[in-house]
């Protein structure tokens, strides 16, 4: 598949691709550690923000292994619950921002007949909550907001494969900002668009992407002429 082939579908990561994660995540992150301390589950200062930001794109169990490796699994699971709770509460207050041009670009892609999906390593409530709170849900395929939390997949490769199989998709682009997105796309034979604007990635993570963009709106320009 080449960049000039019209895809049947596009599959989007959420954090760092569609959504400016830090605008919702960081207040919830600090609230989570305040609560863990009040419950006697954590002692000490809140780990630096770069620990959680640098772990975005991982499964949650791996994120907490990076952020608080000294804590046991029960604390990690409690942190999962609290982080989701505080993010959902933040969404209800209208917190969190899309990257510039995301809504308009998704509308244009949908108008061109491209089926839209998400594939995120996040929890189901978070992924669906973000898309709904931002008013984007009508643009996506019915049932197409895939997350590792809902489908219990062990990798994004497996999550994307499950999505492709369930919807009978034969050609698609994978769009994301982390190496897990590149891996998931190529392992499933997809064209990969690397989003190089969030700033969470490590050096070299997007080197194997088929194309890299610095603005979400550039995706439309990659499509072949109608």
UniProtKB/TrEMBL annotation:
One of its GO terms (biological process) is DNA repair. InterPro entries: HAD-like_hydrolase_sf, HAD-like_sf, HAD_sf, PGP-like_dom2. One of its GO terms (cellular component) is cytosol. It comes from the Bacteria. GO terms for molecular function: phosphoglycolate phosphatase activity. Coiled coil: none annotated. Keywords: Hydrolase. This is Haloacid dehalogenase domain-containing protein hydrolase.
């Amino acid at each position: 598949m080449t960049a000039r082939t019209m895809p049947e579908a596009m599959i989007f990561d959420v954090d760092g691709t569609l959504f400016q994660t830090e605008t919702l995540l960081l207040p919830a992150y600090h609230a989570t550690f305040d609560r863990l301390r009040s419950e006697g589950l954590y002692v000490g200062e809140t780990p630096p923000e770069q620990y959680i930001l640098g772990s975005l794109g991982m499964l949650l169990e791996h994120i907490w292994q990076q952020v608080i490796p000294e804590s046991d699994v029960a604390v990690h699971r409690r942190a999962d619950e609290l982080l989701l709770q505080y993010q959902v509460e933040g969404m209800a207050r209208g917190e969190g921002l899309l990257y510039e041009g995301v809504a308009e670009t998704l509308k244009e892609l949908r108008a061109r007949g491209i089926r839209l999906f998400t594939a995120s390593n996040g929890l189901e409530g978070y992924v669906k909550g973000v898309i709904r709170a931002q008013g984007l849900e009508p643009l996506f395929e019915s049932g197409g907001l895939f997350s590792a939390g809902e489908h219990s997949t062990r990798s994004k490769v497996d999550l994307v494969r499950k999505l492709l199989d369930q919807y009978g998709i034969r050609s698609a682009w994978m769009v994301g900002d982390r190496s897990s997105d590149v891996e998931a796309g190529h392992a499933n034979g997809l064209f990969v668009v690397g989003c190089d604007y969030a700033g969470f990635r490590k050096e070299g993570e997007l080197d194997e992407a088929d194309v890299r963009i610095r603005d979400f709106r550039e995706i439309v320009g990659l499509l072949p002429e109608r």
